Amino acid sequence: MRSVRKGDTVEVLSGNDRGKRGRVLRVLPDRGLVLVEGVNVRWKHLRRSQKAPQGGRMKREMPLPLCKVMVYDEAAGARTRVGAGLQDGRKTRVSRRTGKEIGAAPAAAPAGKKPARAKKAAARAEGS
Fold first, then answer.
1. What local confidence, expressed as pLDDT, does residue 29 receive?
2. Domain annotation covers residue 34
3. Dihedral, CA atoms, 19, 21, 24, 29, nearest 10 degrees?
4. Is residue 72 within 8 Å of 79, Cβ to Cβ?
5. Which of 54, 56, 80, 105 could form a disulfide bond with 97, CB atoms 3.0-4.6 angstroms apart?
6. What is the span of the domain harbouring residue 98?
7. Residue 12 has pLDDT above 70, yes or no
């Protein structure tokens, strides 16, 4: 179970943006990176294209290493470590500081769209 998920509020532990808080926009677990709103903002230089005929520069959030952020617990008003707990027979993320559940259950997939795992499982079932 991952301790940091999309939509969590996290606090930066070290670097130029130390102490800043932001919402997680994206987690890249295979690379060990996390993209946080308003943190680690850099200039991105754009080549001329149809979308940007003049080219130019734009400010953009760049990914941070996961080890440099920690989940921020709104109830405690401080950052916290994340543990695992059971609630109604399902595994949940729990704040080590307060013992309360962190965040809600992940949002359901839009109707008509199957997650990649479900598609693979369905394909295997049809093939057997």
1. 93
2. yes
3. 10
4. yes
5. 80
6. 9-127
7. yes
Structure tokens at 46: 């754009």
Q: Residue range 24-36: average pLDDT?
A: 95
Q: Cβ distance 9 to 41 under 8 Å? A: no
In a domain, 4, yes or no: no
Separation of alpha carbons 29 and 22, rounded Å:
18
Mean pLDDT over 61-86 rounds to 92
Here the CATH number for the domain that contains residue 90 is: 2.30.30.30
SS (H, E, C) the chain: CCCCCCCCEEEECCCCCCCCEEEEEEEECCCCEEEECCCCEEEEEECCCCCCCCCEEEEEECCEEHHHEEEEECCCCEECCEEEEEECCEEEEEECCCCCECCCCCCCCCCCCCCHHHHHHHHHHHHC
pTM for this entry: 0.72
